[in-house]
Amino acid sequence: MEDQQNLEAVMGLIMYGGNAKSDAMEAIAAAKAGDFELADQKIVDAEESLVQAHHSQTGMLTQEAQGNHIQVTLLTVHSQDHLMTSIAFTDLAKEIIDLYRRMDNE
């Protein structure tokens, strides 16, 4: 993979992962305020960002599997860490929203 393509993929992971985490945080805030429609939409937005991040990641993994090894830099490691944190945060946000929803129904 060329350096420019690699950089674009890495930056995509960071950008989309960041967007997902922000949307998930907004979803929690919406649920806390009792706006479950907005919370659900923000989770959908977060998941869409994660799909986009996975597209960037898949491109990198495909190149690696084809024998086109990429240079692993601190930025590459950071992008993977950012993505995994965003996935975990989005999953936890769903659970928190469910808890708020239960509390609202009691």
TrEMBL record:
<keyword id="KW-0813">Transport</keyword>
<dbReference type="GO" id="GO:0009401">
    <property type="term" value="P:phosphoenolpyruvate-dependent sugar phosphotransferase system"/>
</dbReference>
<dbReference type="Pfam" id="PF02255">
    <property type="entry name" value="PTS_IIA"/>
</dbReference>
<protein>
    <submittedName>
        <fullName>PTS mannose transporter subunit IIA</fullName>
    </submittedName>
</protein>
<feature type="active site" description="Tele-phosphohistidine intermediate">
    <location>
        <position position="78"/>
    </location>
</feature>
<keyword id="KW-0479">Metal-binding</keyword>
<dbReference type="InterPro" id="IPR003188">
    <property type="entry name" value="PTS_IIA_lac/cel"/>
</dbReference>
<keyword id="KW-0808">Transferase</keyword>
<keyword id="KW-0460">Magnesium</keyword>
<feature type="modified residue" description="Phosphohistidine; by HPr">
    <location>
        <position position="78"/>
    </location>
</feature>
<dbReference type="GO" id="GO:0046872">
    <property type="term" value="F:metal ion binding"/>
</dbReference>
<dbReference type="InterPro" id="IPR036542">
    <property type="entry name" value="PTS_IIA_lac/cel_sf"/>
</dbReference>
<keyword id="KW-0598">Phosphotransferase system</keyword>
<dbReference type="GO" id="GO:0016740">
    <property type="term" value="F:transferase activity"/>
</dbReference>
<keyword id="KW-0762">Sugar transport</keyword>
<feature type="binding site">
    <location>
        <position position="81"/>
    </location>
    <ligand>
        <name>Mg(2+)</name>
    </ligand>
</feature>
